[in-house]
Amino acid sequence: MRNNIPVLLVEDDEIDVMTVKRAFKKNKITNPLLVASNGEEALAYLRHERHEGSVHDKYSDKKNNKNNPRPGIILLDLNMPVMNGIEFLKAVKADSELRRIPVIVLTTSREEEDRVRSFEKSVAGYIIKPVEFGKFTEAVKLIELYWTLSELSPEDMER
C-alpha cells in the first residue's frame, strides 16, 4: 500500500483482527494496522479525542498529528457493539474533516439492506469476509490494489 500510511481496522472480533494481520503479512503489506473495537472508539481516534479504555488514548493530542496519523483507508465491520458500522459511516461521512477517507466494508453481512445503506454512505467497496484464509488473503490483496490505484490529494496525505 502507499508508503507507510496507517490502515484503520474497525473490528470487534479478535479472531478477525488476527486474520487481517495474517493476511497483511502474507501479502507483504507493511503499513501500520491500527485497530478500534467499535465505531465510537474509531471516531475518537480519528477526531483526536480520548476514549475510555481505548488503546488509542496516546493519540488524542490534537496539536500533534504525527502522534495521531490519519489513516489512508478504513476497513470497517458492520456488526459491532456500542456503535455499529452504519452508525460510524453516518458520523464519518457527515464530518468534513473525515469524509474523504476511503472506507471499505469488510463484513460477514450478506444482507442487501446493509449493502445498500453502505453504498448510500459512499463506501469505496463492500467485501463479504471469506471464511477460508486463502480467499481472505485474496480479498486483502484486492483492497491493497484498490488503495494503490486510487489517488489521494496531497492535502489528504498531510492530515
Main attributes of the structure:
alpha/beta, five-stranded parallel beta sheet, 159 residues, globular, Rossmann fold, 38% helix
3D structure, described in words:
It is a single chain. The chain has 159 residues and is α/β, with parallel strands linked by helices. It has one domain (7-158): Response regulator (Rossmann fold, 3-Layer(aba) Sandwich), CATH 3.40.50.2300. The chain is built from 6 helices and 5 strands, in the order E-H-E-H-E-H-E-H-E-H-H. The protein has helices at 14-26, 39-46, 85-93, 112-120, 133-149, 154-158; strands at residues 7-10, 33-36, 73-76, 103-107, 125-128. The chain has a 5-stranded parallel β-sheet, sandwiched between helices. Strand 3, helix 3 and strand 4 (103-107) form a beta-alpha-beta unit. Helix 1 (14-26) packs across helix 5 (133-149) and helix 2 packs parallel to helix 3. The longest helix has 17 residues, at 133-149. The radius of gyration is 15 Å and the shape is globular. The model has no long low-confidence stretch (mean pLDDT 82).
